[in-house]
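Sequence design from tokenized structure. All designs in this work follow the same two-part layout: the structure record, then the generated sequence. An example of the structure record is given first.
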């Protein structure tokens, strides 16, 4: 099969390798197999933004549709300094599998902008989002492709996308995105949905092992919408959450963390770092701590060939 260097990345190689193994196991016909290896369409855009200092910076943006056999494409929009075409393409492919496995009438898509959202003001992020939306306008729509929040984006981002798209249609089009604020047509519980999904999967795993959650030790890498929600529910249900981390680093207490107090600390300080009664630990080391349950809920490629053998968790539930 011909290589396509445009999509080259570690994540894309992994996604394709997974597909190849499954295709062999299913005895998938060659034509279908090779078609699924690559996206149906991929768009690259440049996004000029006038920054608060008066200078203009140009950002790279992407939107990829992997497959449309089941219907319009669906997938998140991420803002991160490591975003690239290969990563976005791999994630679009994974969205195709998710939708198909759940019987949803959607294909997989993904989008992203290479930027550092934490270092940008709200005005800069709004300008970036609206210009990006304008550039991908012909690529999205309720019957074509529906973005959603992902790493570095949230309800506000989706509201900007929806508003920008709607202005070109002469009417409000809430169906162009999901994950938008409830006031403009969003769904209650959307912010916590992925974190709750982790908990549901974990309960099924424990049930299959004839085990209970109460008293189990848990480590969570990531304390945003996904990891934070999972931590709160697991702690509430009786698990001992020993360690959590965010983009600045991690904290650890073998006796367990009070997640309610930790959430208050994060609201005040912006990070888990400095939480009283906990020791500092790196994002890499927190993955290798002995525990019953490990929840990687940050960025991808955290468990790799070089550290997988040092993971000591009994159950790993990815976020």
């Amino acid at each position: 099969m011909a290589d396509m260097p445009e999509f080259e990345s570690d994540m894309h190689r992994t996604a394709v390798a997974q597909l190849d193994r499954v295709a062999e196991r299913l005895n998938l016909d060659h034509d279908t197999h090779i078609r699924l290896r690559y996206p149906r369409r991929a768009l690259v855009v440049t996004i000029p933004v006038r920054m608060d200092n008066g200078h203009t910076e140009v950002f790279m943006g992407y939107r990829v549709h992997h497959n449309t056999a089941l219907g319009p494409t669906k997938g998140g929009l991420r803002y991160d300094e490591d975003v690239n075409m290969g990563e976005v393409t791999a994630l679009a492919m994974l969205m195709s599998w998710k939708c198909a496995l759940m019987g949803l009438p959607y294909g997989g898509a993904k989008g992203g902008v290479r930027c550092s959202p934490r270092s940008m003001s709200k005005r800069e992020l709004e300008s970036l989002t609206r210009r990006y939306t304008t550039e991908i306008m012909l690529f999205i729509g309720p019957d074509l492709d529906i973005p959603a929040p992902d790493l570095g984006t949230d309800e506000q981002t989706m509201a900007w996308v929806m508003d920008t798209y709607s202005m070109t249609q002469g009417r409000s089009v809430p169906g162009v995105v999901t994950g938008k604020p409830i006031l403009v047509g969003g769904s209650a519980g959307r912010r916590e949905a992925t974190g709750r999904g982790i908990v549901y999967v974990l309960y099924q795993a424990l049930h299959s092992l004839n085990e209970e959650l109460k008293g189990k030790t848990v480590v969570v890498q990531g304390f945003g919408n996904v990891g934070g929600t999972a931590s709160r529910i697991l702690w509430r249900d009786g698990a001992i959450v020993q360690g959590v981390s965010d983009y600045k680093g991690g904290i650890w207490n073998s006796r367990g963390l009070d997640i309610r107090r930790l959430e208050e600390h994060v609201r005040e300080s912006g990070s888990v770092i400095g939480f009283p009664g906990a020791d500092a630990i790196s994002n890499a080391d927190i993955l290798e701590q002995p525990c019953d349950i490990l929840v990687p809920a940050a960025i991808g490629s955290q468990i790799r060939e070089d550290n997988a053998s040092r993971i000591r968790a009994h159950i790993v539930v990815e976020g």
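The radius of gyration is 20 Å. We note this feature because it recurs in several other targets discussed in the main text.
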